[in-house]
Write a structure and sequence with these properties.
The protein is built from no helices and 14 strands. It is mainly beta. The chain has a 6-stranded antiparallel beta sheet with strand order 4-3-2-1-5-6, with no helix packed on it. It has a 6-stranded antiparallel beta sheet with strand order 8-13-12-9-7-14, with no helix packed on it.
């Protein structure tokens, strides 16, 4: 039975030595390994130790082009009018356009509502080079998928953040 409120749980991994992303076939946390399909025809099962990779979880969301959004993705956003917390400008809660990094489990403490915070979930850490020039964190709730576009990730495209 499918539940419309449940998202698909899946991961991808950045292979540090190869500078590329692969879809993870299985995770074996008890022995610290992941398995993915690789080789010439991408049909060979290959194992990598956790220290050789960066693991990224699927958010359950897709961008405006239908591309899956993963932890570590760099996204371009427009017209974000929702749940955000500006670290340098309290009370300002509208960001017109910018770049952000998808993160998980980041804590957001609201400056205008003491005691209210989100501690678990998907967040967007807005980069310094965004249009509003303020370092920001925001809960995905205020950000429609139609306004997001994945343009890379922090591992393969670190220059996007400079």
């Amino acid at each position: 039975m499918t539940n419309k409120y449940m998202r698909e749980i899946k991961f991808r991994a950045y292979l540090k030595s190869k500078n590329r992303i692969v879809s993870v076939f299985s995770i074996m946390p008890e022995i610290g390994l992941i398995e993915y399909l690789g080789g010439v025809l991408e049909k060979t099962k290959i194992l990598r130790h956790f220290n050789e990779i960066e693991l990224m979880q699927f958010t359950g969301l897709k961008d405006k082009n239908g591309k899956e959004i993963y932890e570590g993705d760099v996204v371009h956003f427009q017209d974000w009018d929702g749940d955000i917390n500006h670290r340098n400008k309290p009370g300002f809660d509208d960001v017109d356009e910018g770049l952000g990094i998808v993160t998980f489990g980041h804590t957001v403490n609201w400056t205008d509502m003491p005691g209210v915070s989100y501690t678990h979930g998907w967040f967007l850490d807005v980069t310094e080079n965004s249009a509003d020039k303020y370092k920001t964190s925001g809960y995905f709730r205020g950000l429609g998928q139609a306004s997001l576009e994945v343009i890379g990730n922090i591992y393969e495209n670190p220059k996007l953040l400079k």
